[in-house]
Write a structure and sequence with these properties.
Blueprint: H1 2-9, H2 22-28, H3 32-40, H4 49-60, H5 66-70, H6 74-164, H7 176-180, H8 183-191, H9 198-209, H10 222-231, E1 235-238, H11 245-255, E2 258-261, H12 273-276
Parallel strand pairs: 1-2
Helix pairs in contact: 1-4, 1-6
Length: 279
């Protein structure tokens, strides 16, 4: 019975042999190594339905028990145990495998859902960032518009006041240079190297009387030559960005010295802003 049950379980393609006699069993087990390999490598996860149907009567036999069979043959008891456990494994496998597939599918679905959620969150974050930028631009544009409107209203008010002003009489032959300077001062400037033309005299007059720091556009270096001669050793000459220029300005402020910034570019160090604005 044990050998017959083994033949049933191992029937290729579910073709259960009709002859399951001891004689037929001995033929099957004749090549011991091959027979043992077929037992070890048996595909226990795929048992044909015909084999399962045919094996039931053997399993239902009370004497189909490894302990009972062992009293007759230890080898047969081992085969008996193999048949019983192979069938039990297959029954458990058939119950667990669908659940395992379901778990795998659920895990895959969860992963896909999490990835989709992450993508949606990233898109929302991007949209919120764009919204914040657009909101900031809108608020700035609104503020700029309001500022322009206020400036326009102030300008209109200034024009209105200007239109109501009484014309102030001015002497036609008035020369501002005669008011701000005299020949002696101009002569001193020329001795210091100032060119004799009227534009140079006008520039020197502006430089010595203006309440703001004058900016000199001096491609021929005539103005800087006059300034250096005029102020002499008290003049502090610096260039923005050079080592120690801020310390030089600080000491000049403390001592009341004149500072000349050479080679000024289009932008000025922001740290000088309050100083240039007389703040």
């Amino acid at each position: 019975n044990v050998s017959a049950a083994v033949m049933v379980l191992m029937a290729p393609g579910g073709k259960v042999p009709k002859d399951r006699s001891w004689k037929a069993a001995k033929v099957t087990m004749a090549k011991v190594d091959s027979f043992l390999d077929s037992l070890i490598n048996f595909n226990k996860e795929n048992i044909h339905e015909n084999c399962l149907r045919a094996i039931r009567p053997y399993l239902q036999d009370p004497e189909f028990n490894p302990e009972f069979v062992a009293s007759k043959s230890y080898a047969a008891a081992g085969l008996c145990s193999w048949v019983i456990n192979i069938v039990r494994f297959y029954e458990v496998f058939c119950d667990v495998e669908p659940k395992r597939h379901a778990l795998s599918k659920a895990t895959a679905d969860l992963t896909a859902a999490q990835e989709k959620l992450a993508a949606v969150k990233a898109k929302i974050a991007h949209l919120n960032e764009n919204l914040a930028k657009l909101t900031a631009k809108f608020e700035k544009a609104t503020a700029d518009k309001l500022k322009c409107q206020q400036e326009a209203e102030m300008t209109a008010g200034t024009i209105s006041l200007a239109n109501r002003l009484v014309p102030i009489p001015v002497t036609p032959t008035l020369d501002p240079l005669r008011v701000l300077t005299d020949d002696a001062v101009v002569a001193a400037w020329r001795n210091e190297g100032l060119p004799a033309d009227r534009m140079s005299v006008e520039n020197a007059t502006i430089l010595t009387h203006c309440e703001r720091w004058p900016l000199m556009v001096d491609p021929q270096l005539q103005g800087i030559k006059w300034v250096k001669n005029r102020y002499g050793a008290d003049l502090r000459v610096i260039q923005i960005g050079r080592k120690g220029y801020l310390q030089t300005i600080e000491r000049a402020l403390e001592a009341g010295d004149v500072v000349l910034i050479e080679n000024l570019e289009e932008s000025i160090d922001p740290v000088l802003g309050p100083l240039l604005g007389r703040e």
